[in-house]
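Example record for the data management plan.
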Amino acid sequence: MIERRECGWLARVLLAGITSLYFATVCFAGTTGKISGKIRDAATGEPLAGATVTLVGTRMGGAADPEGDYFIINIPPGRYTARASMVGYGSRSAMDVIVHVDRTTVLNFDIHQAAINEQEVQVVAERPVIQKDLTASVSALSARELELSPQLSMQDIIKQQRGVLLGYANKGKEGFFFTNTPSDALHIRGGRENETSFTLNGMVITDPMWGGSDMIQTSSGNFVGEFNTLAGTFNAEYGNAMSGVINVVSQEGPDDHYTGRISVYTDRFGIDKYDNNTKQGDFSVGGPVPLTGGKLTFAVSGERRLSDGYIYGARYPNWTDSRGRDVDSITGLPSGDPEKLSMDRLDYLSGSGTITWHPLEMVKLSGFFAYTTLKRDNYNHYFKYYREGNPYHDSREKLFALTLTHAWNASTYYDVSFGYQDHTRFLGVYDSWEE
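Corresponding structural encoding:
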């Protein structure tokens, strides 16, 4: 009996452990990439064992094995300068090396024997025509590409990716049917709305009730380090994704300089046809915390957008019936001019920040927080002359994530992550928009 109880207890522990590992795999998606390649003697073609490759401005690097092969793992997405060097050889640098999430960038070096005082050779890395380790349909955009995009929101950027169709049925703007429930409005490779999984820094942040993510879709992307659209054949780590995956990794502040950006947008230039009374501003700033020697960095961003949209209704002073006739109650003659009212209003506020700390050479602790509020009309043609009956939704989203990354050695690392989310949403007509 005692042995059976002990076996039962052990089985329960093993089952709990396996279940925990399973859910950990499902809940946390990839957030880093890898660089690998070979270092050879430029004259003889022989592999150079012990040659090193470092990423300039970071603490990351790798050494070549007896076959000349090297690799660097756990690299945040972005552009880097990689430098190869060895005693008795001149150094060689590759600039604009692009690292994507969950992908390996192949970078080979051929270095020459040289005197100690010989100048460093610099080349610009080229992206291969065929990415051999890419087995899924993935579209990736860097922070720089998002910054140069003329689109106002991430939703506009998402709809431009291949395999993605943006539907407007839930907003009534295309004359289909009307619904008053929120939706991500995305159809990826024929999938239905609200089947897309949204991940931020490896954690799923999809609205558990309605789908989509206001934090990602409505944002201008000023906090994004890399944005990926996975339209099919993605890995098992992206669990619960029925149609596609939108994977976002936030920016980290650099440890050797400061960066900043301010953007302001409006369409109020006196041309009624294009004037939606839109006012938008966003900012981002990042860099090392003073007096920490670059071991503690920050990246903070914020955004505010107000717009009346392009769909309007009307309020008549003497309303009589659903046909929209405006007549004087005494004379029965038409009277009064209608008041033009927006039925496509948007009020968006968002703020986020990342703190990264390197207490030890092989240890990194990063924290991310974000807060988003969104008010948006859901247009219904039946309420064109009675805006008070038109439903809108008011949502608030809070997110906090803490990740500990420990590089055990040059080939092994692990992450321990904790995340907290809070979604609050009102949908209906019983509140006041102004409150």
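Summary line stored alongside the record: The radius of gyration is 27 Å.
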